[in-house]
């Protein structure tokens, strides 16, 4: 499960400014969504936690992580059913995405 920029580059169609703007939005939103997911989970607000997993799933897709998308979709379904068995795997995915995004400099 390695993130990549292939899909974002395809969307940008050669526009580095557009690519950077998309990455900035993904970085900002992902941080907020991860924080809100964890907060909701800690409070036992599963319905809200599921909502944030769903939002994160779209970022996983943007970063071209097909296996990560499948994991997130399964975790979303299981969480909705009251199971957090995939929480560790999902947290690992979040770390991978965060590290990848942190390694990209969009300020030029």
UniProtKB/TrEMBL annotation:
Keywords: Phosphoprotein. Residues 15-108 form the HPt domain. The keyword Translocase does not apply. The modification Phosphohistidine is found at residue 54. This is Hpt domain-containing protein. It comes from Algoriphagus pacificus. The lineage of its organism: Bacteria, Pseudomonadati, Bacteroidota, Cytophagia, Cytophagales.
